[in-house]
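Researcher: We're teaching a course module on how sequence relates to structure. For the next exercise, students receive a sequence and then see the predicted structure as tokens, so they can try to spot secondary structure elements on their own. Here is the exercise chain.
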Amino acid sequence: MPLNTRLRGSARITALLWLALLAGFGLVIHHSLRISGDLRLFMPAPHDAVGRLLLDEVSQGPASKLLLVSIQGAAPEALAGTSQQLAAALRADPAFGFVSNGEQRLDMVPDALLPYRYLLSPTLDTHRLDADYLREQLQEREQDLASPAATLLTPLLPRDPTLELIKVLEAWEPAHQAQQQFNVWFNSAGNAALLIVQTRGAGFDPADQRLAIDTLRRHFEAVRTSPAMQLTITGPGAFAVTMQSRSEADARVAAVLDSVGMVLLMLLAYRSMRRVLLGALPLATAGVCGLGAVAALFDSVHGITIAFGFTLTGVALDYPIYLFSNEQPGVQPVQVARSVWPTLATAVAAVCIAYLAFLVSGVLGLAQLATFNIVGLAAAGLCTRYLLPQLLPMGVRDYGDSRLSMTLARLSNRLPRLPWLAPVIAVIGVVAVISIRGPWWDNDLGHLTPVPEAMVREYESLQQALGAPDVRYLLALQAATPDALLVREEALSRRLDALTTQHVIGGYDLASHYLPSSAVQRRRQAALPDAATLRASLEHAVAGMAFKPGLFAPFLADVARARTLPPLTVQTLAGTPLALTVGSLLQQREGGWTGLVTFTDVQQPQQLAALASSNGQIQLLDLKQAAEDLVNHQRQRILASMAAAAVLLILVVAATCRSFGRMVRVVTPMGLSTLVTLALLHGFGIALNLFHLIALVLAAGLGLDYGLFLERSSADPAAHRRALHAVTICATAACVVFAVLGSSTLPVLRSIGITVVLGVASNFLLSQLLIRRRDPP
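Model: And here is the predicted structure for the students to work with:
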């Protein structure tokens, strides 16, 4: 059998085995992969108690499960009717734990808790249920029954003639709340009915939130009375769903555009569909191996990790390009791979070292991304060295003699040699960085999981309309048990009342407003009269009134039961509407309990700070400052890791070049390009966040590849032309891929794309200017 025939048969077998392994490995990953939508994976890791509290509140607190709903597009009365019907439908749906639209609903307190109203109400702190008080209350009820409120009060009167339940509900109302029309909440303009809905699913789990939002919309479609009515849903869960949807849509568009762009570019460069298909094999291997690694090493993989991972491992296409462009007539591809491997291996190792900075960053999402890229790029490099050459035929042309290569070589030769260029660029870059005003770093924690500005404004508008508290300042109290916390909060309330009177704060909210301590409940319980005394007082009070004999038997029974009840606790509130409110203010953490105090209209935060400093058991939390400190601490950790990686990178390049001068020639364009990119971003007023650092690392890694291959071939004109061919195609491919990413509607993806394009373009131009062809020794 002829040698060429045997080689072609061997190549087919190798290709089929390679594809079969990828397919089999892909199926295994498909069955074992658990995809997460939890955006907390891309949040910085907390380094202190304040940071842990902040992230817990943002990601796991009851507020993270709240959806703010607005209904508009009809007359106020119609909107109110739809609001009431929608609220009723949602309360009956197990997907939702709490629904409120401002309706005065006496069934908000379950029957089992109704007798507790005497322990929750402050009435017994100042009055006794004696004949005088009961007669005063019953006289008021006679007047109420002659008013429009009679319909509401008549069913309640036999059981609660003193309206203790209504007093409790009124005490639970926030200091500031939305205006009401037709007994439901409306915005200030009166053209939108408002609701608050709590989902049972986790707030930062897009799958659960998408299901809840779809269910909510389905109920709205069933109850709305006019097709002109519109439903708006916002909140942390809606943000998570929007982010996932837009990320997936952008990823699909980018995948299509990038694939088409790469195929056209490879065809234009090599005029061979076979090379296009073969070049895709290391790329596919990078994706499969990277995904397999994170699936094996982590319990679940974030969807953003997968999308970013496949995008960033797209640079693995550079490796077969370096192999193809260095082919020579009559030279076996195995020999070509062997000759370029030392440089290619250095390029692969350099990028992997750069990603080590994110592997130890403390951000789980970045660690997943680093794992994906390190394993994927290493696999692609090894496949390019050992497998891909087995599939290629004997070289028949020299791409260094192509029109593109010859043109680039002529242009490169015409460029003036400017030994002072590098220091001048460095000085200009440093001056620009120092002199241009504007923030260097973006310390906003929310920008790590960015939400479209319009959605944020809509959310803030609804929060304001609903009288939501100021979420910047909190007081935190610690205790071993919830009841001990409630005792401390009751003592604190007296001082906060004074601050409210002094207009230091507009109002405050804390758990003891809703759930008094056991001591307070027992004191009120002790103030309840026994059955005989209460019956005698009631008979004396109703004398001469029109109430039927025996009407208030349920009232007597409730008081008798209240006298024997154990105090109401956090545990007995579980499953009741009150659990959401108390649970958001009283939380168990690390074996103890934390009580939070929220505020409205904080005018003098320094007074709150003075209050906290005067009591060692109280801590004032400035969540805005805490978020900035958290991001700043994380950034410092990543920058330190990047600095260590940079040192390792230089050592690897030095070991490969075996010459200090050659190492400087390779590293200088990369360093200057990073400086130029930073200066351009700063000049455009872009504050840097963690994702910009990812982009800078990637751009630097790509630029190092260009420097390594141009320096390697700088003493051989033909090899230099082949290197120019490869580097030009690689730089163009990177610009195409990341320009598509830069057109994304998501700010994070757009900033990454723009940063990499700037970095790659700078690296390519500076490599041409600073790594010139030199005469052979």
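Model: If you want an answer key for the exercise: The longest strand covers residues 470-479. The first helix runs from residue 3 to 32.
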